[in-house]
Amino acid sequence: xxxxxxxxxxxxxxxxxxxxxxxxxGARMQEIADRAGINKALLHYYFRSKDKLFRIVFEREFQxxxxxxxxxxxxxxxxxxxxxxxxxxxxxxxxVRKNILRFILWEMQSNTQNIAEHFLDAFQSKGxxxxxxxxxxxxxxxxxxxxxxxxxxxxxxxxxxxxFPFVAAPIVEKIIPGLNTGDKQFIKDREKEIFNLIWxxxxx
Length: 204
Fold this sequence. Notes:
Blueprint (H helix, E strand, L loop, with lengths): L4 H22 L2 H8 L3 H7 L3 H23 L6 H18 L1 H13 L1 H14 L6 H11 L8 H17 L1 H7 L8 H19 L2
Helix pairs in contact: 1-2, 1-4, 1-6, 2-3, 4-5, 4-6, 4-7, 5-6, 5-9, 5-11, 6-7, 8-9
């Protein structure tokens, strides 16, 4: 049977839709085949197992997010600009690509090492020998741009503030009346609030 790249892409897109809703455990190859508009035998011809298909979809989505994130960073910009760009890009990716969060959460339950390796590969592909956010924080402290901070705690706090409302959306939207984490104004306000909270605490 001749290989068709268009069929492969249809399968990957269909699998992404199913995996993000049902996870790897809840997804069925027949459902993916139906969504792709092909029969199950053809699906298995291109991807012999659900695990292999999940891995390919995960790597594709995850790498795309990391490329957007690290591609937007300007390591030479003043630290306040660097921080604003990071927050804006990170939240945009989370808000627009909520499937990435689901992928990461599901993958963390079974293969934490794989996620860590993806991050390290992304760092290296951009020419960094270690976490670029920590490198930039250390540089900002050394250059007297910001107050002395623990870069590890800084990164954990920054990422936590960006991610939490979207990961916990089903809960926080019920306990905070009127909150809609998918609303464009909320996203803009969230970006501004995180930046102001952090910057006001570290600026010289």
